[in-house]
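Task: sequence in, structure out. Protein: Class I SAM-dependent methyltransferase.
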Amino acid sequence: MTAAEPDWLDLRRPVDDAARQKSLHLIDHAVARLSAEAESDEKRLLAIDIGAGTGNSALWFDAALRARLPDWELNWILLDSDQASLDYAAAALPHARPICAPIAGLPTLSSELLAASEFHGSRLLLTCSALLDVLTETDLTAVVRSLDDHDGLGLFLLSIVDGWELDPDHPSDAVIDAAFTAHQHRDGRLGHHAPERLMDLARRHGLTAVEGPSPWRLAAPADRTFLNRFLSERLDAAVDERPGLSAVAEDWWTQRQKQLGSGLSVRVDHLDVLIDAVGRACERETPTVRAITTPTGTETT
Ligand SMILES: C[S@@+](CC[C@H](N)C(=O)[O-])C[C@H]1O[C@@H](n2cnc3c(N)ncnc32)[C@H](O)[C@@H]1O
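Result:
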């Protein structure tokens, strides 16, 4: 696991916040589900932001949820395996509890937290942003198991998928993209397959999965500082994966730097995923009522 640089996370915050405007329909879906199922005395939510980093994603989720669930008690856990990032996160969200641990331990952690008297009766909500691509099959299994065990909801936003488009294009875009994509799969990481894999695993457990796009849309020169960092880091990763690309990369970078001053549009595709185990729990608790037509009229079963 490699921690993200705090200054990079701050640079991407307004760009992520803009992209997450497209994620609001999934927040609304989760809120509608919680509101429909809650008894009046059971409006408590235990939200765990996994891969919380310096807290920017939890701040966004917190604002979006509080605006929509004003009469709910909302408790935050910030989970990350990098203590230095969590130190920043704890300062940004003083009401949250930071926990330094790997995502693979989530089933045990969520069970322990929900059993604690302070969170008694809470619904479980897992959140994350800009995380899934670095996770492994073991991590995703832990995520789905936690939702399955506790009939929870999961909001997994801004996951990289296969696709970014630059205008104007360059003859080496495809080869650089292929090397970057291969780099994303190093050490067993699921890379851009992670959101699909997460939905597959969830559906196999009988949970509902809903998806939606949330691309970054960037344009230089206005987004020059962000694009300079973003493109140079993608290029470094591509050359790290395929050192033979260094000459191609040099030419590509010279052209791109000129365009950062004169005009360049970049679209980076992301996928958002909502996993809903609450509905499955309700179906278990309430026998399905089906209307069937018989020769003598309509009956219910
Ligand atoms: C790209 S950062 C995103 C941070 C934050 N969600 C945001 O949007 O600003 C990914 C974070 O996930 C954490 N992380 C990655 N893999 C992890 C794992 N297996 N267990 C716990 N934390 C992990 C990293 O330490 C890093 O802080």
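Residues 1, 3-4, 9, 51-53, 56-57, 80-82, 85, 102-103, 129-131, 134, 139 surround S-adenosylmethionine (CB under 6 Å).
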